[in-house]
TrEMBL record:
This is Guanylate-binding protein/Atlastin C-terminal domain-containing protein. It comes from the Eukaryota. Pfam families: GBP_C (PF02841). It comes from Cirrhinus molitorella (mud carp). Coiled coil: none annotated. Residues 39-95 form the Guanylate-binding protein/Atlastin C-terminal domain.
């Protein structure tokens, strides 16, 4: 599983590909937009951060905590927003 992203699709079981394709179709067709407390929409990037936090926590032998995962995700999102704002500010200042 750790090499799944680097494998050629011909090297992956056709049954595995079929099941994952059906899963993805089901998610895109039947799932509604998810949101966190206070109505914050879970984007793909946010879901990726949450999934990574859960996987890292479980891999370390700890029990995942939704509150801690949301706090970690919020910190990552805030850092990204600050960087984006700084980039826009620097670009505007260079134009002056």
């Amino acid at each position: 599983m750790s090499r799944l992203g680097t494998l050629d699709s011909a090297a992956i079981s056709t049954e595995f590909l079929k099941v994952t394709d059906n899963f993805c179709k089901s998610v895109f067709k039947d799932s509604s937009v998810k949101s966190l407390k206070d109505g914050y929409t879970v984007t793909g990037r946010v879901l990726g951060h949450l999934a990574k936090t859960y996987v890292d926590t479980i891999s370390s032998g700890a029990v995942p905590c939704l509150e801690n995962a949301v706090i970690a995700m919020a910190m990552i999102e805030n850092e990204a927003a600050v960087k984006e704002g700084l980039d826009i500010y620097q670009s505007a200042m260079e134009k002056l």
